[in-house]
Amino acid sequence: MKNEAILDTIYARRSIRKFTEESVSDEQIETLLKAAMAAPSATNAQPWRFVVTRDPERLAAIRKEMPLAKINAPLAILVCADLSIFKRPIVERFWTQDCSVASQNILLAAVGLGLGAVWCGVHPVPLIEKRIEKLLDLPVNVKVLNVIFIGHPAEEKEARSQYNSQKVYKDRYGEPW
Ligand SMILES: Cc1cc2nc3c(=O)[nH]c(=O)nc-3n(C[C@H](O)[C@H](O)[C@H](O)COP(=O)(O)O)c2cc1C
What we know:
Layout: H1 5-12, H2 26-37, E1 48-53, H3 56-65, E2 75-82, H4 89-92, H5 95-112, E3 116-121, H6 126-136, E4 142-151
Antiparallel strand pairs: 1-2, 2-4, 3-4
Helix pairs in contact: 2-5
The structure holds flavin mononucleotide.
């Protein structure tokens, strides 16, 4: 299936940090989460769990715990992983990759819905992890990767790819492409 629109979406995705007050609908949230759960995961374990909040007090509390993410958005999705589902430690160790691809799908789906979003890192910064775990009352077996703030954009950023041929090597590392 050839579809250039996906490339436009990939380039159009930018970190949006300014939002209007318009809220994100239940339907839009479900679309974002469907996109998230369409992601690949190691052994298809799907360890992802999502804490979704539109509660202004909750959003303010999250903002307070995130030193690098003072972002005023009408919606936050916290991408978490339930490690208790894993029987083998080797697969458990892929939870960050699993949750990262799900997160990227949320960011891309947001573009498709005309929304803006920004990924704000929690893991692997122990201080922020601890703060968010406490705030969300997470069970010990649940990890949190990030907070994705989402809303209707109040800023515009240009689409771009950041392609740099000097970061590409031919056949062996260091050999120019
Ligand atoms: C793992 C990760 C952590 C990030 N953490 C933050 C953050 O705490 N606060 C923030 O404003 N942006 C955060 N970002 C967004 C980056 O700053 C942004 O992706 C980068 O500057 C490139 O800009 P772009 O997303 O518009 O392409 C994070 C992105 C990633 C992938």
